[in-house]
Specification:
The complex is a heterodimer. By secondary structure, chain A is an all-beta fold. Chain A has no helices and 12 strands. By secondary structure, chain B is an all-beta fold. In chain B, 0% of the residues lie in helices and 49% in strands. The chains are: A mainly beta, B mainly beta. Chains A and B meet through β5, β6, β10 and β11 of A and β4, β5, β9 and β10 of B.
Amino acid sequence: AQKVTQAQTEISVVEKEDVTLDCVYETRDTTYYLFWYKQPPSGELVFLIRRNSFDEQNEISGRYSWNFQKSTSSFNFTITASQVVDSAVYFCARIQGAQKLVFGQGTRLTINP
Amino acid sequence: DTGVSQDPRHKITKRGQNVTFRCDPISEHNRLYWYRQTLGQGPEFLTYFQNEAQLEKSRLLSDRFSAERPKGSFSTLEIQRTEQGDSAMYLCASSPRGGAPHGAFFGQGTRLTVV
């Protein structure tokens, strides 16, 4: 199986610190899609970003940024100046086949005031 | 609210009973997915529909599980003769034409507890 690995099970930081969540993926495809989702305590998976394999530009959206590196099969997510509301479980995922999302095990992020 | 809607949000049932969950996708989305998430794990794919056609089923979907999407709108997931191992969060997602590569949008899930 072509896995998605999130090696960090839990991260705890103090508010306003920057934090990076790691994601490493396996794929034999030349074209593929990667995603990040946020799952707050309410349980809903909130879509954060989609990236296709042709676009290696890093992306920034407010305090969030993503670093996609095909050479290392990584798609890392950084939160700058973290806030308590960022506390959640974050999942990295990729498409397998045409439609199936394969998720990593998630990283539980706790931002302490 | 125009997001994916799931009902019920929580279900507690006795082992051996049948349960049915409902998912209403975003209205213009023609693809609908079911995932299962156990504690401390990422969601795992169960099945997906394009309109009313069920196009893929995971090996996780045993004979006790059945999903339908009549008329290509809402979907139901039924579990017969529930077992304690079925306790999980069941998540529904939908995607626009073109499917998951264009983004899959999830509902809040149905948390099932089998006692």
